[in-house]
């Protein structure tokens, strides 16, 4: 056995025999919680962790010393950005109805158009998955906007997503988003609901067929989930059948609710109460339900989440940009609410999201003791695993999956380390991710993902985004010029 470096491993593959990874810092797990190991080793065998602790005394095929690095469980992203990020088009610009985030009625009447070609949709997911890996995320539940779609997501694009996850080596929970309808703009600032029950139920059926086919694909990397779109786009019948199927098949369900002002107003108008109350009254809250983002949740909504074991997917970055926050992370935990985390926007950076979670969580409590780094790190790892019912994820312990992120604490931009978790979170960037293993396979090394040309992909992503923008006026009330919809930060110089 000789001492090796990461460069000796084949990118995109699982090495034969045992691999010992040594580092100055390791986040291990002792069965009760994360524990820091100083100058220890993690040993991978196949797709699993064999050992975490001091130097392993048994036989290994290779030993890699990562030096002043942090070996950490990979992050679990419950609301993982999986398209070319269009939430950026909602920040700093007008209300949704004036900026193409609500369809004008004439657009719906004319038949909403699919704004992406099938190859665009397949590319988006591959692009996003590579970015998640580059940020130390090893398990992802993709999310994308339906505003740009003819209706819901398609089974074909999710088959392409399963293929991308298998090719790149990312653990995923996949389910095409479906819905019964949504709001349309009938006059400036006036929004009206429009539903098509049959179309929603057909979407659920397609998602269930897909779930049955896809479970365990990619040597177990691909698992199914159910993804009804935001609560205000779903009828009661659609949600009742979704939750019944989730229970029968043991699937996680993700449903956005208590997350936006338009949603809150719409649900009130349709059902006379908040979304969590509406679901609770129909027996539809349960412990496999993942509910991003809870920033609009009332105290009663939060109580219902706690009582029914609902998991909040906390995505602080995308909300902080709009000056909004969960109130508060600590209070939710004290109520007994389960919290996992998500990225939901670009950059799909969980380290940055942990930093924002910490800052906003403390701001919400008005105190530096209002949230700890450990609570946030737990949410990004153990909280996600708990949400998925996966005690073999989100931790480094014997028998757990070898889903690992390695962070470079000697990055020249980083301050000297007193505590590795504090350094990482205060450093606030996933760009220090040196390597990622998923299921024992080296999926990313020094920013490179096997079979993925980052430079070419970036050019293609820009072109796709510009094509999308060019078609924007067509689907905005009054069809204004693009520059009026998205005015520049400064006036352009003449
Ligand atoms: Zn979201």
Automatic annotation (TrEMBL):
Q: Which InterPro entries match?
A: Amidohydro-rel, Metal-dep_hydrolase_composite, Metal_Hydrolase, MTA/SAH_deaminase
The name this protein goes by in its record: Amidohydrolase family protein
Q: Enumerate the Gene3D superfamilies for this protein.
A: Metal-dependent hydrolases, Urease, subunit C, domain 1
Q: Which residues cross the membrane?
A: none
| Nucleotide-binding keyword on record | no
> Residues in domain Amidohydrolase-related?
116-442
Q: Does the keyword DNA-binding apply?
A: no
Where does the source fall among the domains of life?
Bacteria
Any Pfam family matching the protein: Amidohydro_1
Tell me which family the UniProt entry assigns to this protein: Belongs to the metallo-dependent hydrolases superfamily. ATZ/TRZ family.
What's in the keyword line of the UniProt record?
Hydrolase
């Amino acid at each position: 056995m000789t001492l090796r470096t990461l460069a000796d491993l084949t990118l995109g593959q699982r090495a034969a025999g045992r691999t010992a990874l040594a580092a100055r810092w390791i986040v291990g797990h002792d069965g009760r919680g994360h524990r820091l190991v100083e100058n220890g080793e993690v040993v991978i065998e196949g797709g699993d962790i064999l050992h975490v602790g001091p130097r392993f005394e048994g036989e290994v095929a290779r030993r890699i010393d990562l030096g002043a690095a942090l070996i950490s469980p990979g992050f679990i992203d419950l609301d993982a950005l999986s398209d070319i990020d269009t939430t950026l088009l909602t920040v700093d610009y007008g209300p949704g109805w004036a900026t193409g985030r609500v369809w004008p009625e004439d657009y719906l009447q004319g038949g909403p158009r699919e704004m992406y070609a099938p190859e665009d949709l397949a590319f988006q997911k591959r692009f996003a998955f590579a970015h998640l890996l580059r940020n130390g995320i090893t398990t992802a539940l993709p999310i994308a906007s339906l505003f740009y779609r003819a209706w819901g997501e398609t089974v074909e694009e999710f088959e392409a997503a399963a293929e991308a996850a298998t090719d790149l080596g990312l653990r995923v929970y996949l389910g095409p988003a479906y819905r019964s309808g949504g709001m349309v703009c009938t006059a400036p600032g006036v929004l009206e609901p429009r539903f098509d029950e049959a179309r929603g139920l057909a979407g659920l059926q397609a998602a269930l067929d897909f779930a049955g086919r896809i479970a365990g694909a990619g040597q177990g990397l691909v698992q199914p989930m159910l993804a009804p779109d935001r609560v205000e786009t779903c009828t009661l019948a659609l949600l009742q059948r979704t939750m019944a199927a989730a229970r029968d098949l043991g699937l996680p369900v993700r449903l956005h609710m208590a997350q936006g002002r338009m949603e809150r107003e719409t649900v009130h108008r349709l059902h006379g109460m908040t979304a969590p109350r509406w679901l609770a009254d129909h027996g539809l809250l349960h412990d496999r339900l993942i509910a991003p983002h809870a920033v609009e949740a009332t105290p009663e909504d939060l109580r219902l989440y706690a009582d029914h074991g609902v998991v909040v997917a906390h995505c602080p970055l995308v909300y902080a940009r709009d000056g909004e926050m969960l109130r508060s992370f600590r209070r939710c935990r004290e109520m007994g609410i389960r919290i996992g985390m998500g990225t939901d926007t670009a950059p799909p950076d969980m380290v940055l999201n942990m930093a924002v979670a910490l800052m906003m969580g403390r701001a919400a409590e008005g105190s530096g003791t209002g949230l700890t780094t450990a609570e946030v790190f737990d949410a990004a790892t153990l909280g996600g695993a708990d949400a998925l019912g996966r005690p073999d994820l989100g931790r480094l312990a014997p028998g757990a999956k070898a889903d690992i992120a390695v962070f470079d604490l000697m990055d020249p931009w980083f301050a000297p380390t007193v505590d590795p978790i504090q350094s990482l979170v205060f450093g606030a960037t996933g760009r220090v991710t040196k390597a990622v293993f998923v299921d024992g396979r080296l999926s990313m090394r020094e920013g490179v993902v096997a079979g993925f040309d980052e430079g070419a992909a970036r050019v293609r992503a820009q072109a796709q985004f510009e094509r999308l923008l060019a078609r924007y006026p067509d689907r905005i009330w009054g069809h204004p010029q693009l520059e009026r919809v998205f005015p520049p930060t400064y006036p352009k110089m003449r």
